[in-house]
Write a structure and sequence with these properties.
This protein is of the alpha+beta class and about 475 residues long. The chain is built from 15 helices and 16 strands. The chain folds into 3 domains: about 190 residues, no CATH class; about 80 residues, Alpha-Beta Plaits; about 170 residues, no CATH class. The radius of gyration is 33 Å and the shape is elongated.
């Protein structure tokens, strides 16, 4: 049967039996709407949680926590923190699928910070400030305005004994054991979007502070604040004399540590050597492995385990498993709806074949083959599925818009609250239509085979 003739038969049957077919297609529409709605919700939540909050394409590896004395241990002198050598960094970089291995060096001494009067109207501070250092080259491609993310002592100023010998906003960078120092620009500091979100949605409301947002962080570039090195609420470092340096926020970076500040690596090396000894400056405290996919992350984890390293945080894997499980469960519910609708289509087409038995026999008598009859019935079922699937897609999109509207009005503002909880990539639309047509055709398969076996002579004679 030619495609044009088949198309004509299908269009005619859609008009002739539209009542029964609409009833059959209603289940397909409901199943498709449920499937697409749940998948879009899962994809949207996954994009936020595994793309911004817990990136699934990267993992931070560090020495075992039981081998780390912690900040209190460093204060009382129980030994330096365990480190990661250059050899381990090179080994991890050779793992198939790994895109980059970024070493990090945490503060190995207590510190605190205070500032922000230009933003909040008065100074605010933290009695314990976490920080780490990264290679400035890792931020290549990110813009921080006129502030260069590099060690200010790359271009030191005049010699000095104290801050009075330097012109503002410079300060005297003089290690506690040095007789003289050098005038230095404020140390550039990066913050993460995660930290900005946590501050805006949790900390700021609790303390009556205005949200800062990434835009305000951008406007605050160049504003300095004080960092107290070697001393915090918990006590003093085991070596070196506490002193105050100046820093300024360069901007928001995806390379910054989640909770704390990130500085150029050479700055942290210099301060760690001053307050915690050479051992805390000559090796890295952790490495961030970025890979092309989750399977490569798995290989990196195996290699890291062989090197005596373990994940700093497994929340990304846990969240990924949870989301996958929930999506599978909800998709199973949608699949059950589609199976039920397919059985409804099977019943409708069995009745249709019985009613059209004489018509089918006539077509067979004038030369139509059994394959033509199967194509007719399956094509009709697929058309019903496509129409029902299209209706289901419209329903799913409308429900998603309604859900987003309700969420925007009813849910409180929380960190990383997305503008939409749903994601509708092009393949999802195609998959929705494809599954709708597939289940409709599966439902009509046995009736179509029955139609292909109708004997013209027996059917036309009424036997």
């Amino acid at each position: 049967m030619r495609l044009g003739a088949l198309s004509t038969l299908i269009r005619r049957d859609l008009r002739r039996t539209r009542g029964a077919l609409v009833t059959s297609g209603f289940g397909i529409a409901a199943g498709t709407a449920a499937l697409v709605f749940f998948l879009a919700l899962g994809l949207g939540v996954r994009a936020v949680l595994l793309g911004e909050v817990f990136p699934i394409d990267q993992i931070e590896l560090e020495p075992p926590k039981q081998g780390d004395p912690g900040l209190l241990g460093l204060l009382v002198g129980s030994g330096g923190p365990p480190g990661i050598g250059e050899g381990s960094v090179r080994d991890l970089a050779m793992v198939p699928g790994v895109l980059s291995v970024d070493p990090r060096l945490r503060f190995a001494f207590p510190s605190s910070g205070r500032g922000g009067k230009e933003i909040f109207g008065h100074d605010v501070g933290t009695s314990e400030l976490l920080g780490d250092g990264i290679e400035p080259s890792l931020t290549r491609g990110e813009s921080f305005g006129s502030i260069a993310f590099e060690d200010p002592l790359t271009h030191p100023g005049a010699a000095c004994a104290d801050d009075g010998g330097c012109a503002a906003p410079q300060y005297c960078e003089r290690p506690s054991d040095a007789a003289a120092g050098a005038c230095s620009d404020p140390v550039p500091v990066l913050v993460s979007r995660y930290l900005v979100e946590i501050f805006d949605k949790s900390i700021a409301p609790a303390h009556g502070l205005p949200p800062i947002g990434e835009t305000l962080v951008g406007r605050a570039q160049g504003v300095t604040f004080a960092l107290r090195l070697g001393e915090s609420l918990l006590g003093r470092a085991k070596s070196g004399e506490p002193r105050t340096v100046r820093a300024r926020v360069a901007g928001v970076s995806r390379r910054a540590v989640d909770l704390g500040i990130t500085l150029p690596l050479s700055v942290v090396r210099r301060w760690n050597r001053e307050y915690a000894g050479a051992g805390a400056a000559d090796s890295f405290s952790s490495v961030v492995v970025r890979a092309k996919d989750a399977s490569a992350i798995g290989l990196a984890l195996e290699r890291g385990k062989a090197l005596g390293l373990e994940p700093h945080d497994t929340r990304a894997r846990d969240v990924s498993v949870l989301i996958t499980g929930v999506m599978a469960l909800l998709s199973l519910v949608a699949a059950v709806i589609l199976v039920v609708s397919a059985s409804n289509i099977a019943y409708t087409f069995r009745v249709l074949v019985s009613e059209r038995r004489a018509e089918i026999a006539l077509y067979r008598a004038v030369g139509a083959t059994g394959a033509d009859m199967r194509a007719w019935m399956l094509g009709l079922a697929a058309a019903v599925g496509l129409v029902g699937g299209a209706a289901g897609l419209v329903i799913a999109r409308a429900l998603a818009l309604l859900t987003d509207e309700i969420a925007a009005r009813k849910l409180p503002d929380f960190p990383f609250k997305p503008a939409s909880f749903f994601a509708f990539p092009p393949w999802l639309w195609a998959a929705g239509l494809g599954f709708a047509a597939l289940f409709a055709a599966l439902g009509a398969f046995r009736p179509a085979r029955r139609a292909s076996r109708v004997e013209p002579a027996a059917a036309l004679s009424g036997s």
